Amino acid sequence: MNLSLPIKLLKVFFWFSSIYCLFLLATLNISTDTHLWLASSAFLLILLLSKNMSTRATTFILIIGAFISFRYIYWRFNETLPWESSVDLPFALLLFVAECYGILIYVMGMFVTVKPHERKRVPIDKSRPLPTVDIFIPTYNEPIDVVEPTILAASKMEYPGECRVHVLDDGGTYQKLNNDNHDEAEQARKRADILKNFCKEVGANYITRERNVQAKAGNINHALKETNGDLILILDADHVPTKDFLMNTVGLFQKEPNLGFVQTPHFFITPGPVERNLGIEDKVPSENEMFYNKILLGMDFWNGSFFCGSAAVIRRAAIEEVGGISTKTITEDADTALNIHAKGWDSAYLNIAMVAGLSPDTFGAYVTQRSRWSQGMIQIFLLNNPLLKKGLSFAQRICYLNSTLYWFFPIFRTVFLLSPLMYLLLDLQIFVGNAKDFLIFVVPHLVISILITQRLFGKTRRAFFSELYETALSIYLCLPALSVFIHPKRPNFVVTPKGETTLKVSFSKLTPFMAFIFGLVVLAEAWGIYRYIQFPTEQSQLILVIIFNTFNLMMIILCLGAMLEKCQRRSEPRLLVNEKAVIKIDDNSLNATLNDISLKGARLTLKETHHNIHRGDIVDVVYYTEKAGTSKNKKPSYKQVHLNMRVVAIKNGHHGVQVCCLMESELASDMQIQYAKAYGQSSRWKDRRRYEEQLEVGVLSSVLGLFSMVCENLTRVATTSVKQKMASTKPQGKRELQNG
To answer: Rounded to an integer, what distance in angstroms lies between the CA atom of residue 398 and that of residue 401?
Structure first.
């Protein structure tokens, strides 16, 4: 007899019974005192278990949190909706549905992250046949300076077997080279020629095709027909890999024959525009760390981690079985992983950062990227729904459902933003309640939710920062997200701009609409305070809506700060080094500190105040870099390298004379020396991620920090606005005087 079916049925029965019991408990009609006792007990239990990080303790805490949230939403439905008003009810129901959505995502997130799975690196077994590896680097219109480091790094990867690098240039197709627009065709031809020559120099294979069909997915699918490697490593054009990438990942495929793909983190060496423009890039964890350092670990426990488009190794047999990279949606990566899982293949998430990518440089590029993600994940929900997909386990369905539903947030976050305005400015009754109800039902739900979120994600996300990121995006993504429901197949793949520069401090082009919303929220705040003072009978309910609106106001002020683009002249990132170096000029050797480097430049600080270096001089920069392989005692060995560089700037710094240099040579061999120093070792990214985890602060500190940021950015935005207004009116005034 097959015992698996009865066991599965027993598990299903257990889960449904548990959910039903939780529902019964949550809907019990109890007195206010009893509810307060339950909420207080739940709060104390969570505090008592806060130091116990075991899976059992976490599970128990999550059950408590789910119980309190279910009681809250049950109360909201029965006690706070204006059923008697046909005018107010639709708007009140809209807010209620938005809250239900938030709690659904919250509860599914609990399930997904209940037990993070930290995989260990599996060494390659050289005694067994080694799989051949094809490295795909798809590119379209990224600047050459962005693509070259990735090609260079891929060509220098360590691997004992056969490995081939393929540059998939969709910017050099026959269609683009023969564009009717002569200038665009000539620009594409120049770019393609540079790429071809660079590929030839480093030993990479250049692949292009006839037409730009089906964007990145079509580009990769075309390359699949041109290659035959057992494994395929896919790298975005700006994702520079460390040399140990294949050494850390291929062993997993040898160990697990049914492994379809291995995903690794996307690590970004440049801060995102929100963190950079707010000036908090070294004060809070990166936005992406919550997903790559927590959520994917939980999904891996359920065999539900998915392909994220880059920094992943895929078994050719798995991808060919599903017909290649999916072309149904513009988030082809997650859609492809869903298809691979449905065919019975396993997945793995190895939480070792081994690529260094570039974040979007401007707020506009950030919105472009997230708009594609939002539309694509909604497409998956509509066209390839995980609940209806055959071949997935229950847990995999929840993982994919959580990931797709999350990207509905632009719609519901906009509802949260507009709801207080409906009440304060239009007098629509979106919520029936008073301050006492707020303290009894709302506060316990909010406080316990925050405590649980802090437990699950405290090391990777500050309290209330998810609300900040979502508010910054929701206004601009709401309509694109809604449009997918009308035309699910219409969204087009848009490449995220990389390598952009900003020559001066200025507001993003998207700012006016956010400023308009800011004006509405300020108007609602002022009107609400006026009503609170003038109409004492409304105070009990007004105070709740004013608090809600004040929180939104704080978020919008921070959003405006995030849209005030800081000056960024460098198109190429610099990486901190701070190691000993020597600058040689003529017969003199000057001791220096190598502060930071890029693939084509460096900044050094001289230890001597007297020197004979001038701008325009050609100097010999000497430093140490790690040799390939390790010594007998498994410690890295180093060699001395020399690079000719031209001095482009000399300035006095806090710690000495700073010398800024650019490489004279454009040879790939010289850039490889810089690559080995800057990008070669994954330990560099490991140390950065460990540093970001140590930035964890408690909820109270996070709240105080949030208030401080709001005050600082309100001043910054107001000051910049006044300065720009004065600068724009000054020339006009001069012209009027001259005309007079």
So the answer is: 5
Residues written for the chain:
740
Q: Which pLDDT tens digit goes with each residue over 546-584?
A: 999 999 999 999 999 999 998 776 667 778 888 899 999
The whole-angstrom separation of Cα 674 and Cα 53 is 42
CA distance 323 to 338: 13
| pLDDT tens digits along 130-167 | 999 999 999 998 989 889 999 999 998 999 999 999 99
pLDDT at 209: 96
| Termini Cα distance of the chain | 102
Q: Is the pLDDT of residue 1 over 50?
A: no
Q: What's the pLDDT tens digit per position in 365-421?
A: 999 999 999 999 999 999 999 999 999 999 999 999 999 999 999 999 999 999 999
Q: Over the chain, what is the mean pLDDT?
A: 89
Neighbours of 52 (CB within 10 A): 11
- Any bridge partners for residue 640, and if so which? 624
Question: What is the DSSP code (8-state) at residue 442?
Answer: I
Give CA–CA dist 413/236, Å, rounded: 30
Instruction: Give Cα 720 distance to the centre of its chain.
Output: 28
Question: What confidence score (pLDDT) does residue 635 get?
Answer: 65
- The beta-strand segments (E) located in 51-204 are 133-139, 163-169
Task: Specify burial of residue 529 (Cβ count, 10 A radius: 0-12, 13-18, 19+).
Answer: middle
Distance CA(180)–CA(692), nearest Å, equals: 49
Which of 9, 100, 155, 111 shows the shortest CA–CA distance to 679?
A: 155
Q: Please check whether residue 580 is in contact with residue 623, taking contact to mean a CB–CB distance below 8 angstroms.
A: yes
Q: Using alpha carbons only, give the angle 366, 372, 377 rounded to the nearest 5 degrees.
A: 125
pLDDT tens, 52-70? 888 889 988 998 898 888 8
328 close to 379: Cβ distance less than 8 angstroms: yes
Strands 575-585 and 133-139, bridge-based pairing = unpaired
C-alpha distances in angstroms, 679 versus 203, 244, 358?
19, 11, 13
Residues with catalytic function = 170, 333
CB 203 within 8 A of CB 642: no
The structure tokens listed for 460 are 């990777």
Q: Which of 638, 663, 662 is nearest to 648 (CA)?
A: 662
AA identity, residue 415: V
φ, ψ of residue 736 to 5 degrees: the values are -65, -40
Looking at the predicted structure, is the pLDDT value of residue 730 above 70? no
Residue 4 to residue 11: CA distance in whole angstroms: 11
What are the phi and psi torsion angles at 7 (to 5°)? -65, -40
The SS3 assignment for 679 reads coil
DSSP label of 537: G
The token duo for 392 is: 């997935």
**Phi and psi (nearest 5°) for 290?**
-60, -40
* pTM of this structure: 0.90
Average pLDDT on 274-291 reads 92
Dihedral sign, Cα of residue 189, residue 190, residue 192, residue 196: positive
pLDDT digits (tens, 9 = 90+) for 463-483: 999 999 999 999 999 999 999
